[in-house]
Amino acid sequence: MGVSFLTHHTPTRVLHPRRFGSGLLWVGAFVAFLIFATVCRAQEPADPVLTMLPRAENSRYWISGQANIIFQGRIPFHSPHEGPNSFRNSAEYKTSMTGTLYTAMRPTRSIRYNTDLIFDMESAGGRGLSQALGLAGFTNLDVVRNPNLGSTPYIARYGIHQVIGLTGRTVSQTANFFALAPEVPEQRIEFRIGKMTLPDFFDLNDIGSDSHLQFMNWTVDNNGAWDYAADTRGYTVGAMTEYDDKSWTLRYGLFAMPVVANGIDMDWALSRAHGQNGEFELRKSLLKQRKGTTRILFYANRAHMGVYREAVNAYIAGTDATPNIVAHEHFSALKYGFGYNTQQEIADNLRVFGRFGWNEGQHESFAYTEVDQTVEFGGDYSMKRFHRPVDKAGAVFVSNAIKRDHQNYLRLGGLGFLLGDGGLNYGRENIAESYYNWHAWRGLFYSLDVQHVNNPGYNRDRGPAWVGSVRAHVDF
Fold first, then answer.
1. Distance (Å, rounded) from C-alpha 415 to C-alpha 418?
2. Which of 36, 232, 381, 424 is most buried by its number of CB atoms within 10 A?
3. Under CATH, which architecture does the 4-475 domain have?
4. Is the full-model pTM beyond 0.85?
């Protein structure tokens, strides 16, 4: 569905195996070294304490906190030209800091009809490399895409969580700041309403969803093609419901969309602007006596969005001086897509996971990142056999792409809210990432992380880029 007649012919460039493979080989060597190094570490208790302060069990009240600090640095890389939204080629380092206070309470002790009241405060400060511009798969999920918002604390989440049990049979659950009850009915309906971030409940993956203890890249921890409803900080207001059974779950939600792409203000006219999300989760393993889960996600967003082809055609016709997606926005424009998410335990210490995502790509990337299609696969390895039961090493490869209309828009000099080199020699953005997460003491963790980015911003003329990270994380 592209406009190929608008593009000039460029010779096909084959990615040299050494250029492509060097990142994966370096990642493998890095992880292997860290695994070997754990043999020399002191032994850790079989059941280590994972918070700085103890938590009361089966309490009707919850209060906890976390702090996450990520230091990232980049070495210079090949870059014959740059534009306003390019990932800069000079050496650079940046630090991000996030802190969250989680509070919740249960008004009663009912299990079958449990209610949770939730209220969280958060602060997000620091900046990303190149002001978080120039990469579809940006290297730090903690970075706010508008650094001018500052680090002033804000309300991150508030809401009501209601459980309606359909049976007296119960199953245990690990209490957390979203659900305090130690048990839940095996068959139940759950309702949530309030302010939330959708990745807390949709597209979850035990191996690749947590930027505080696992991978750091935007398109690793979340499905990059899922343009989920959110403001600049990643939050929205809405309601969702889910039905839970013994081995499967079905969930659906309706949420507010931002007024403009990557905006902080939400459009409260839900009749014209909203995000609908649905997901089916099946908890079935492909291997006997192992755990495995598969999730299939669908989404449909309506918002004041532009159309890439219209912006390109207006530029070619001389109507617009430069391709400008904002000049071709329509109320209630529809953007839709789906995602596939799977995880599988292979052995006691080894798990693998993967994602695939696709969206229609004709309408502008609006709320998350500039990805129209993505595929990723990876895994993690627990250091239990080295007497480090909480330590983990992980490695992943993710490949992102955009559709032809999106390519033409960037090639002719158009700007998205993240990308825009002033020209584009298109190629898939391929990223390899690895990490080692070390449990130092109680709720204190340190991590080393390295990312190798081929064709940053989908531009074959630039890169590859290397980004190294050191992370400190504290759970209170």
1. 8
2. 424
3. Beta Barrel (2.40)
4. yes
